[in-house]
Amino acid sequence: MEDLIALEQRLTRPSTKLIEDIKNIDGDIMLLGIGGKMGPSMGKLAAAAVKEAGINKRIIGVSRFSDAKARKELKEAGIETIACDLLNDEELSKLPEVKNVIYLAGHKFGTVGNEGFTWAMNTYLPGRVSEKFKNSNIVAFSSGNVLPFVPVTSGGVSEETTPEPIGEYAQSCLGRERIFEYFSKKNDTPLLIYRLNYAVDFRYGVIMEIAKSVLSGRPIDLRTENVNVIWQGDANEIAIRSLLHCTSPAKILNVTGPETLSTKWVAEEFARKFDKKPVYQYEAEGTALLNNAAECHKLFGYPQVTIKEIIDITAIWLTQGGEEFGKATHFQERGGKF
């Protein structure tokens, strides 16, 4: 396990390009909603890049911080932390003004039966944040779920494709984009809408879910047989560097890896490593939520961590009893119910 921890440190070390870009980002950086799956590692990456660059820049993490241990770890990494319920106007108004904001807040799992809260987090809150930080550069996280299912041979949809969200979660995500876009135009706020599809780590994500299914003999749903993924560390780096590409009107950016992955191929890769036979159910329907990230790769280059590396380290992590986040992506969901 110590070797894996060392490997993770290597894979999450700031690149030369990030170190150079963070020197060019004017002002401090605030991560709103740092307590989620990506926030802690993104904050630590930004803090490490600042240190490597030898510059003075505050990295500020904002969350409710129900987990005291997580907050302590962020502080130890050099991140200032502020406890705040973003839906509380009084608490939101007291946050310090900063030049750069990465907006990570949102609600997905448990949307069914709790639709009001989902819309409040995903659509109402962005308006409040936009007014509070109207003088900041904002990178606002969104989701490929706002886009239509497309043929798996299409190469994925581009940023110019008209959204067709299915279900209330995806609809509220499109609402988030539209609200941010409105205030970007109204206040001339530089904005980049960061459409992510799907970040993975060896603790969570599509690749881990397939690995667990193969190892346990659980059937793998082939109806959505193709996916896009990107290593979380690469996604984090792109988010930070995107602060240099915010514009008004807003720029939309698809963020994912270069492959249209077959879930069956991924399962067979794990089957060889685990000496198991995968179990499949249903037939492929020929369409999936697929993003074309050519613009992202033009701006930032291809991801540093390859899919083969992700599969290798996920297999080792899982068989050695590594911890998991335990949050499923539900990437097979085709009806928009999360």
Structure, described:
The protein has about 350 residues and is of the alpha/beta class. It has helices spanning about 1-10, 15-25, 40-55, 70-75, 90-95, 115-130, 165-185, 205-215, 230-240, 265-275, 295-300, 305-320, and strands spanning about 30, 60-65, 80-85, 100-105, 135-145, 150, 190-195, 200, 220, 225, 230, 250-255, 260, 280, 285-290. It has a domain at about 1-195 and about 230-255 and about 290-300: Rossmann fold (3-Layer(aba) Sandwich), CATH 3.40.50. The strands form five sheets. Strands 3-2-1-4-5-7-12 form a seven-stranded parallel beta sheet, with helices on both faces. The chain has a two-stranded antiparallel ribbon with strand order 6-15. Strands 8-11 form a two-stranded parallel sheet. Helix 3 (about 40-55) links the parallel strand 1 and strand 2 (about 60-65). Helix 2 (about 15-25) packs across helix 3, helix 8 (about 205-215) packs across helix 10 and helix 8 (about 205-215) packs across helix 12 (about 305-320). The two termini are about 35 Å apart.
